[in-house]
Amino acid sequence: MIFVYPLVDCVILDYIMRYSKRRSSQTTRTSRHSDKKTYTIQLDLDYLERGGGGTLAVGGSPSVEPSPDSLDLVKVVLLGAPAVGKTSIIQQFVWSDFSEDYVPTDRKHTFYPSVIINEHLYEVKITDVPVIPYFPINSYYEWAHYRFYGLRNATAYILVFDLSNVETFQYIRTLRDQMVESRDMRNVPVLVVGNKQDLLCSAAPTAASGLQQLAMAESACGDSREKRRNIVNLVRKHWKCGYVECSAKYNWRVIAVFKELMEMIDALECTGGVRSAEPPPESSTGQANENRCAVA
């Protein structure tokens, strides 16, 4: 018995030392992770838009929210009618991935990329939420029906509609009107995005259809173009907001969507929240190059 106790003590001491080292290693890794504030992905939007390489993974987990003490945390919420491609846009931007299967969003999903724009690093929280029937008019309704969605305290909004079904624009038009009535939107950028550009007039007539179906298809395309022009005029001239068309399926101008939004946010940061009252000029290619969004 005299020799058993020292042996047990040694075993216990060895276990305690191993456990302490393991805990110390875990603590060190946690502290290192916290100090560096690494997140899911880091994107240089200027480089990617110029046709640079893919995204650069820098570790972290999309389920871990960044520290609220961060001064450059940008909260972006995507809103739109069902099946307009909100989730697909986010997944193409963050993961360069697209799924043909439509799965309705049934709960909130958050993504945490770090974005570099104009040599400024921003920590972005992108929130994908289920379709909401209305925008909460006050904090009580938000707490009662959209708890933890973060709708009323978002830094910016992306309103998505389907270019092949312009009726979906009416949904975001109603939401935008409710936003203006229910919260201060003076320094809140809003970007309107027309998705599914690849579906515009994509149904080519068959040889058996003849000239009649071809004429009907051209007429339908003409009506669609007219509706799109009216939407662009409303968004840019009356709402004074940014407007981008993209295709999440083919990853066409998805980077431009978030680059446009981040330039709006960056311009507000640089000017201390002072906005231009004039509509942004359009480039020669017909795409807006605005850096600000003033919802009136």
Q: Report the average pLDDT across residues.
A: 76
Largest sheet: 9 strands, mixed
Structural class label: alpha/beta
- In DSSP terms (H or I, runs of 4 or more residues), the helix count works out at 7
List low-confidence stretches: 1-13, 23-40, 54-64, 66-71, 274-296
Radius of gyration, in Å, reads 25 Å
Write the element-wise H/E pattern from the N-terminal end onward: HEHEEHEEEHEHEHEH
Overall 3D geometry?
A: globular
Percent in helix: 25-40%
The fraction of residues in strands falls at: 15-25%
Termini separation comes to 86 Å
Number of strands: 9
Summed up:
By secondary structure, the protein is an alpha/beta fold. It is 39% helix and 16% strand. The chain has 7 helices and 9 strands.
Name its key features:
disordered N terminus, disordered C terminus, 39% helix, 296 residues, alpha/beta, single chain, nine-stranded mixed sheet, 7 helices
List the helices and strands and how they pair.
Blueprint: H1 4-36, E1 41-44, H2 45-49, E2 56-57, E3 73-80, H3 86-95, E4 109-111, E5 113-117, E6 120-128, H4 139-145, E7 156-162, H5 169-182, E8 190-195, H6 210-238, E9 242-245, H7 254-270
Parallel strand pairs: 1-5, 3-6, 3-7, 7-8, 8-9
Antiparallel strand pairs: 1-2, 4-6, 5-6
How would you sum up this structure, described in words?
With 296 residues, the chain is an alpha/beta fold. The protein has helices at 4-36, 45-49, 86-95, 139-145, 169-182, 210-238, 254-270, and strands at 41-44, 56-57, 73-80, 109-111, 113-117, 120-128, 156-162, 190-195, 242-245. Strands 1, 2, 3, 4, 5, 6, 7, 8 and 9 form a nine-stranded mixed beta sheet that branches.
